[in-house]
Amino acid sequence: MIEIVNLCKSFSEHKVLDNTSFKINTGETCVIIGRSGCGKSVLLKHIVGVLKPDSGEIFINGQEITKLDDKGLDSMRLKIGLVFQGGALFDSMTVGENVGFGLIEHDHVERKKLFERIEESLCLVGLSGIENLMPSELSGGMKKRVALARAICTKPDLILYDEPTTGVDPITADSINELIRNLHDKLKVTSVVVTHDMKSAYRIADKIAMLYQGKIIAEGSVAQIQNTTHPVVYQFINGLAQGPITETTGCLK
pLDDT per residue over 111-142, tens digit each? Predict the structure, then answer.
């Protein structure tokens, strides 16, 4: 479903993506791991078309998206759900308005159909009946679920998750992981998750890929990554202070 070919992106003198290439199959949950600041979120922003690469290509369902105009990008984005790291709910909107935001802004759905889609999306994340609450009335875990409901409300083919378990307690994190897995199975969507939380990665991934110094240096099943002999990957997944990754390598300040 996604093919990234020789993607390059620099900010000033910092090269964040350096001829990055990999593929994600339709229906697969691919978890991209790597240190904070290594470019995982930058990669997601390229997939959704928020950032343009310096060079390289990105294909989604066979369509090369880096050259699309604004109209083409809007059409493409309706097929992509994005779950931001902090949830990114609009404080001045109700839960229902947040969940239906994508449809309200970009797809002219009749009012009855809109309400049905909002209710269905909230039900899928276990939050039926909270449409009229405000984000300030929600717990951290509920905000994450509402953000996920918003992502699935447009019935996307692809969902992108940026650090979905950041900022919540371990029990809530595990419930979020279970929800991601369950939604993948129910909706048959392709998912891309960026995280440095290995417990989450092992819980939800069909495939894990590690981004390091601008490149995908290893990819494979959960078992293959857990049994890796690659020194960089081994150090990272085991959280070891000693190894080839130091405080000045593997991430960009």
Answer: 888 889 999 999 999 898 899 999 999 988 88
Round the CA-based radius of gyration of the chain to a whole number and report it: 18
Residue type, 105: E
Domain total for the chain? 2
| 190 contacts 3 by C-beta, under 8 angstroms | no
Round to whole Å and give the CA distance between 161 and 236: 20
Summarised one tens digit per residue, pLDDT across range 20-53 is 999 999 999 999 999 888 889 999 999 999 999 9
Secondary structure of 55-108 as H, E, C letters: EEEEEECCEECCCCCHHHHHHHHCCEEEECCCCCCCCCCCHHHHHCHHHHHHCC
In this structure, the answer to whether residues 5 and 70 fall within a common structural domain is yes
User: 3-state class of 113 per DSSP?
Assistant: helix
In this prediction, residue 53 carries a pLDDT of 94
Tell me whether residue 16 is in a domain.
Answer: yes
The pLDDT of residue 253 is: 36
Do both 70 and 87 map to the same domain? no
Q: What does the alpha-carbon distance between residue 214 and residue 236 come to, in Å, rounded to a whole number?
A: 16
